[in-house]
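Predict both folds.
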Amino acid sequence: MNLKPAWRRYALFAVLALTSNVAAALEPVEVQRWQHDLAVYRRTLEARHIRLYHRISKTEFTAALAGLENALPRLNEPQIVVELMRITRLVGDGHTHLAYWDAEHHRYPIAFRSIEGELRVVRTTPAFRQLLGSKLVAVDGMAASKLQEQLAPVAQVVENTQSLRRQTANHANVAEVLYGLGVTRQPRQARFEFVDDVGKPQAALLTALRSDDYYEQLSATIAPDTVPLGRKVAEVSNRLWLSADPAQATAYLYFAQYPSFPEMERFAAKVQSYLRKHRIRKLIIDLRENGGGDFFVGLSFAHQMILVDELDWNGGIYALIGPTTFSAGMSNAAQFRQLFNATLVGEPTGANPVGYQDMDGFVLPHSKRRVNYSKRMYRFDAPSADGLQPDKFVPTTWADLRRGVDAALAWALADRR
């Protein structure tokens, strides 16, 4: 991702933002508060980020902030937030981001996934179930391709083309982001146009939901959750559990979230006991939905697995990875390849194996927006600007997803070494 063209376009984006929607501009006192926030933003990042100017120069960063500060009297709140997201992206590491989701925000009742260059509806509310699987065509008249272009330089938690694809889809339903970009005409209502696989068009006037309501109400999904190999045999939560088929001497670990150290120790002990008792030979660790946490917790799991002599250590351990595999999820994937002789299966990760991690943050005093930043530099594999690479590349296709086929898992289950 070339940052210099993004910087050179910054002034153009700011000018367009001034005229792209009609919400009231800030009052003078609000301008002063944002000026203070921007000063705190720069001063704190410079003091705490391990190496703030590793991708963009100090001169460019300072000029971008000055451009935003000068434009403050003509901008509204959503526009300011979007422009600050754009500036934060210039830093160039995914752990440095403006965490807009920590403040109250709204999402339209459809979740997208980027597949083969298109935004597909993969989750929604029961009222809009008919939209599942359809391709986004336009939002308030803006073509989906143009929408993705607009979102690309402002999407947060981006480190390479994989996480850019993932996060562009994740930002495509955020009402404040779309309005701040001038994509939508109203703050929380927009007309979405779709087309299905046979070319039938559909349109819906959608109203954005509060984020808490959004996560509670989106129960209709293109791919219902399943438990591979039949049933769960150990579980911490619906984000960390083990299923197994003793007859096939195979176990599947769904590892999407990190528990506390004590919880992981107890869980790993149960997993170790089960693997030994049932003489499990093949272990598949699914990290595809693991967006990060504490990789040392993952290593505590690894410590107990290393003791299971019954596993096939000569090719019987697999780790599934993809664009959502980020931060500690990527770190553990690289470590499992080293410690377990694991075969990585799937798509490249959204985080790079050499880069800035170990996130911390601070809150801007007036707007209460949280800004996160990187504190450490880690080297988990050979340098790559496009993620940790799988040993066996198995892409996610729309044809597979539509039929409920998990191609990466199927490959790992079928592999015989």
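Second protein follows, with its predicted structure tokens after the sequence.
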Amino acid sequence: MSDPTFNIEPLGDGDQASFDLHDSDNGEELELVLVKHGQRFVFRCKHGREADLISQLAEQVRNPDCELDWFDAAVISHQMGQKLKERLGNMMHRKTG
């Protein structure tokens, strides 16, 4: 399984500050995108590697050159937990449905 990835990308014209959390097309990868201060912070990991992603996020927050802060980390962690809860609910529904 591949390690989580983290990228910082400049915003394109017309991009607005936002937060987005979604699964990739194949449903095997989680991608979190946070847009802040003209940069897009992109975190990706395979399902089941979310703890590694959180560790990587914490490393970025501790980096003084990165604009992410602990509030951003808390929001991302919360959203990741919500997505995991949704995925588990869907799995249980399919299993019992």
